Amino acid sequence: MRNKHRKGLYAQSRKDFISKLNIALKEAGETDYWLDVIPPAEYFTDDEYQSLKEDNDELLKLLTSIIKTTKENDS
User: Fold this and answer.
1) Distance (Å, rounded) from C-alpha 8 to C-alpha 63?
2) In this predicted model, what pLDDT tens digit does every residue of 3-56 receive, in sequence order?
3) 20 to 30 A from 46, CA-CA: which of 2, 10, 16, 73?
4) What is the CATH architecture of 2-74?
5) Can you tell me the distance from the alpha carbon of 34 to that of 27, in angstroms, rounded to the nearest whole number?
């Protein structure tokens, strides 16, 4: 996930920046799905799962906010 965000830092334009962050948002969304599927398989303790879920939720909110603000500033 970090690599997707890092690529956004080296974007060639605002449009490219938004595109790269949208890719990162999509990946975070997929991670959210897999985190919902994983608990029944018991790969993580409850505390580990909760920590990962909270971190990913925060990342989803952050990416959404950056994309929204960037788009608003372009208009």
Assistant:
1) 11
2) 555 555 666 788 888 999 999 999 999 999 999 988 777 788 889 999 999 999
3) 2
4) Up-down Bundle (1.20)
5) 11
